[in-house]
Amino acid sequence: MHKSRLEAFSDGVLAIVITIMVLEMKVPHGTTFESLHAVLPVFLCYVLSFIYVGIYWNNHHHLFQLVKDVSGAVLWANLHLLFWLSLLPFVTGWMGENHFERTPVMVYGGVLIMAATAYLILVRALITHHGKQSALARAIGSDIKGIISIVIYGVGIVTASLHPWLGAGVYAFVAAMWLIPDRRIEKTLPS
Amino acid sequence: MHKSRLEAFSDGVLAIVITIMVLEMKVPHGTTFESLHAVLPVFLCYVLSFIYVGIYWNNHHHLFQLVKDVSGAVLWANLHLLFWLSLLPFVTGWMGENHFERTPVMVYGGVLIMAATAYLILVRALITHHGKQSALARAIGSDIKGIISIVIYGVGIVTASLHPWLGAGVYAFVAAMWLIPDRRIEKTLPS
Amino acid sequence: MHKSRLEAFSDGVLAIVITIMVLEMKVPHGTTFESLHAVLPVFLCYVLSFIYVGIYWNNHHHLFQLVKDVSGAVLWANLHLLFWLSLLPFVTGWMGENHFERTPVMVYGGVLIMAATAYLILVRALITHHGKQSALARAIGSDIKGIISIVIYGVGIVTASLHPWLGAGVYAFVAAMWLIPDRRIEKTLPS
Amino acid sequence: MHKSRLEAFSDGVLAIVITIMVLEMKVPHGTTFESLHAVLPVFLCYVLSFIYVGIYWNNHHHLFQLVKDVSGAVLWANLHLLFWLSLLPFVTGWMGENHFERTPVMVYGGVLIMAATAYLILVRALITHHGKQSALARAIGSDIKGIISIVIYGVGIVTASLHPWLGAGVYAFVAAMWLIPDRRIEKTLPS
């Protein structure tokens, strides 16, 4: 099967996820600069989630550059990833409206762990489909960066149970770590 | 007529349907794990509907691999399918917010029956357009799986009128039955 | 300029317009079949608007089959059409929630007139760009069907000022008239 | 890396931004023409923002006609632009619901400045990637029009602090200035 519709569908879902999150930022009733203060925590969450969806889209983009075709297992692994990312608007709104309280920050980290795990599963499904000797498998190598991220998310959740803002800072740190696109694949691509 | 815009438009509608359903999950007012309990039924409905849209997208994807071009009748049969799928966010929200009460569960099943019927009509319109001797017609064969699904949805609606949760379980069973992608077509595709 | 991004952007906007209209159908509070009655007028409006967006997408699809490339004027004529269609969710919700009262039905007709006019302008812009001797210009011929539609919409608005439901019936009649895709272009396409 | 997915993703985000803005226009409770008056300021804001998104989509379209491939830096510069444009529904709703009061109009101008700056950064990233001798670099030349726009937005913000409606008029003036598509690139394209 061709990969083009999987890419188009994923682009569509990610574009909607990234855009409807802004709907969680309710228009404030006041008209002063102070009335924007109430929106600030939701705005910060929005920025963080926007960057995360951007990272996933970026890495998805890089990853599928090396994909030749897709199997049924890949289609479902991809939908599984999109499922967890589609929960981001919900947890973004919950964390933001409650000004980074403990439980919402911890649940946000839980969604990040599930999305990162779903991405690892997707990569595995693609490698299984293409074979261990494929350009894709060689470009990916080990998933060390993804596994480290999951561990740090776990640290972030534990941190959040003590100091919620610090936990959110840990998530922001992982985002910063990923802002650099996946060099493993760019190196492999013919220039 | 080319099939590419029909695919792009369907991908767009399905991507939006699958994503706006999450908007039915209202951010809870509390900030404890208990406050998530109130969202749990809507979340379960969301998972079920997400899987259903995923199945339809998957089967649509498989089906159109064998489609060469489309006619006016195919365009409208496709829009008819998208119409019933676009009602999923509405019935998902209704069923979830009312914690799987009788009538919403029955209406949810009614929408599933209409969507499944619309899919059968779409398949028929494609076979009429391509001819009974086409690769598409041979790959589809009989629509036995689709017809069985409609019968089981009917059983689910009757069950729901007695035990709503059991009725929802019947719908989940049909979803599980379809999680395996349509082998009929994958077999026919040149490898 | 290539036409592909104009098509993709239009598909995106129309897919979103057709899908967010369903958000105007608010989940009812009751859980009986009777509680669905309150949603029925919005549902009927949704069906009508869904068919209208389907018609526009269909005709847009047909029209652009013959388009070779696009100019700046075509881009803006297309955006102008999308603007009026993007108002459909608003007037659909207004007409439906007020059970087809006089003013909302008349305003709905006004939006239909503007969208139909915008479509005529788009066709003219395309003919200007391709030349009067082009396959496109010959396929379109006169815009008689579009002009008749605008006249009937006007009749519908006047009718609505007296009998709102009858006015809505007139709009439904025009929709039925257009359900048959544009044969002018299908005839011209190489089979 | 290919540019096609960047274009598809951008088209998706812009299509959603342009369409969900209409959701800020709440269906009025009354059913008279007078009840539409309350919606008028939001409608005017919607028209202005619709035109702005149209301009960005148009210029993005023109710009990427000359783009051959994209780098990681370009992907992020593009996401950065989409981020600021995704804030348009929020500021549109805020400005409209408060009938063009001072602070919302000033904040709206601030978002316009950020979006225009993000566009300049995107153009710079593309030129860096393609080289100063590329057709793209020669077609762009200096970014004088973009820089002038930013200056006028600044004038608009200062004006808005004194006469909010006049400030909004300044933004409308810049929009009018851009309605003419970017001739620099159209001239360079092979006809």
Fold blueprint:
Four copies of one chain form a homotetramer.
Chain A: H1 4-20, H2 40-65, H3 72-86, H4 88-97, H5 102-130, H6 135-140, H7 144-162, H8 164-178, H9 183-188
Helix pairs in contact in A: 1-2, 1-3, 2-4, 2-8, 3-5, 4-5, 5-7, 5-8, 7-8
Give a written overview of the molecule.
The structure is a homotetramer of 191-residue chains. The mean pLDDT of chain A is 90. Chain A has nine helices and no strands. By secondary structure, chain A is an all-alpha fold. In chain A, 75% of the residues lie in helices and 0% in strands. The longest helix of chain A is centred in the middle third of the chain and has 29 residues, at 102-130. Chains B and C meet through helix 1, helix 4, helix 5 and helix 6 of B and helix 1, helix 2 and helix 3 of C.
